[in-house]
């Protein structure tokens, strides 16, 4: 019985050692790929806000301003879409004699559009034209790539090269031979748009940083 148990244990151990997969000895590394290039697209939120004692006056003023802004922006061949139209009361929360609660003392109307253009160098002139036409809200200036696929592919290639280099160094330091790639996963990556929350003159687009991080596992021969 003892001999049979020993033989069974040895067979089980051989089966476990020879099985490929997660139990196979390996070297796990993280690779990082970074790629930088100038943006080719810029997006900015432009709009108008008006306040008045009467609701109709507030909405009429915003509509008047935005008609002029849209006419000026569309002439420049910019893609435009509305991202927000809000009307809300302005409340006076200060207690008044004879009042049971807050009083509505006026109304605020806001209309915001998103303008998107590939003329990165001309974004300052576009904003100036919109403001001259009546826009009094300018925010969220963002630089990006369109499309980002090629830049992400370059960063991904660099990340895999970095992982392979690190794995080779670890194998050499450990005195073993590096084997085949067993598994690879991408933990994060992509183009992170650069944002400018407030307009400033002049506006510099700079460089966009594309970063891809991969987790790779190599076998040991």
List keywords for this structure.
Translation Initiation Factor IF3, Alpha-Beta Plaits, 2 domains, five-stranded antiparallel β-sheet, 34% helix, disordered N terminus
List the helices and strands and how they pair.
Layout: H1 2-18, E1 26-37, E2 41-52, H2 55-75, E3 79-92, E4 103-117, H3 123-133, E5 137-144, H4 149-174, E6 178-188, E7 194-196, E8 208-220
Antiparallel strand pairs: 1-8, 2-4, 2-5, 3-4, 5-7, 6-8
Helix pairs in contact: 2-3
Explain this structure.
- There is one protein chain.
- With 221 residues, this protein is α+β, with helices and mostly antiparallel strands.
- It is built from four helices and eight strands; from the N terminus they run H-E-E-H-E-E-H-E-H-E-E-E.
- The chain has a five-stranded antiparallel β-sheet with strand order 3-4-2-5-7. The chain has a three-stranded antiparallel β-sheet with strand order 1-8-6.
- Helix 2 runs antiparallel to helix 3.
- The N terminus is likely disordered.
Question: Which regions have little confidence, pLDDT < 50, spanning 5+ residues?
Answer: 1-21, 196-200
Question: What is the count of DSSP helices, taking H or I runs of 4+ residues?
Answer: 4
Strand order of the largest sheet: 3-4-2-5-7
Strand content: 35-45%
Look at the helices and sheets and give the structural class. alpha+beta
Average pLDDT rating: 84
